[in-house]
Design goal:
CATH topology of the largest domain: BirA Bifunctional Protein, domain 2
Structural class: alpha+beta
Low-confidence stretches: none
Distance between the termini: 29 Å
CATH superfamily of the largest domain: Bira Bifunctional Protein, Domain 2
Oligomer: single chain
Shape: globular
Amino acid sequence: MLTIEELSVFCKKKGIVFPTAEIYGGLSGFFDYGPIGVELKNNIKQHWWRRFVKQREDVVGIDGAIITNPKVWQASGHVECFEDILVEDTKTKERYRADQLVEDALKIRADSLNAEDLWKLIEENKIDSPKGNPLSKPRQFNLMFRTHVGPAESDTSTSYLRPETAQLIFTNFKLVQETARMKLPFGIAQIGKAFRNEISPRDFLFRSREFEQMEIEYFFDGEKESAPKAEATFLFLSREAQKKSQKASQISVSQLKRLSKLHAYWLVQAYQWYVDIGINSKKLRIREHTEDELSHYASATFDIEYEFPIGWKEIHGSAHRGTFDLSQHEKSAKVQLRSFDEESKTNILPTVIEPSWGVDRALLAVLCDAFDDDKKRGNIVLKIHPSIAPIQVGVFPLVKNKPDVVKVAQKVAEKLRMFTLQYDESGSIGRRYARADELGIPLCVTIDFQSLDDNAVTIRNRDTTEQVRVKIDDLQEKITSIFEKWKA
């Protein structure tokens, strides 16, 4: 079975993800994306943006600043509440997240427990640090990265790298509504970096200190909530099931409690997006937040989780934020952040549903799901969906020492430039197919000696290894047709 460590090694070897500045020993919780990884990551973001912004009339986008006025984070509650619970190895002084040590030792979910409850479990079960030493009492640790703006460092110059992308959407709400001439209900979307000074980053890309989010804040009149009908069936883990240590069960979205119409609609939209980029629905589930783990701003939150090698972990959060954020910024900035309703002639403080996707976690789920150690072929096959594949088509001349064959192959490559392409003439054709499999290339086009006579080439399917002969003149249309069938 694939481990997260094996995936990390594979990603480095194939140019997907590297430890940052590895020649200097790297930096824990930070990663660089290589030639294949950056294409996959960009394709994921572009697919999401096309689906949720470009193809919708009720969502527009922004790109907010990474560093903003620190009063934003005071009003949002991040300065006061954005914390994890830290414990320290009393001998080595190394620091760890208390809930993670408890989870690892007792195999229970502990991320919603407070410092007192965690310390009780640590004492009762004699939990030591990973080095085998006693632990200090838990204490709170704020996760925001501090920085200073301007030439002088002082209390007045202190600011923060943003820990989430949502707040810039809220502070820009009125400007966006007025300039884009939007009426409720409508959404504001953003893709961007966020930073959290994790106590102990781990599990490769899953828990890092720099990451990227794809997020929508959807604003509506809480008194007039309506939504298109949402239909889906999925694995669901309710609050009650978690309290009784029961497993998830198959359920339809219409059966869910504590879920408003718009909340249900956006949860289904998010779930379907993961399925549409090729993630196996059997490895996806919805988990409802228990009462004691809800964020300070949320009345209800539902996570979409993926079954990673490290267990079921969150890749999407869907929160009902109510009017918390806009009301907080109204009070703090002393400005009105309301929407005028023509029908009632009143100013409405919009209610908000927030669907939030992690880019890096989506990429990690795609890689885990696509990874197939094919013993018959003797190599890894990355079965990435063609809609987000880093390279869509490989073009291979059968041999590189025959100028006529190479010339035809180069012409074929030029003909297929509307697809993301790799031209490879190095090594045996079998080795090139194996390399293509490992990079997730869905289709390979091989030009051979026969191509000189019949003006045709061979298309090889990555997943099935089936090969079909196609005229060069029909090649573009044939490949498009294959991708369309794949999509269906």
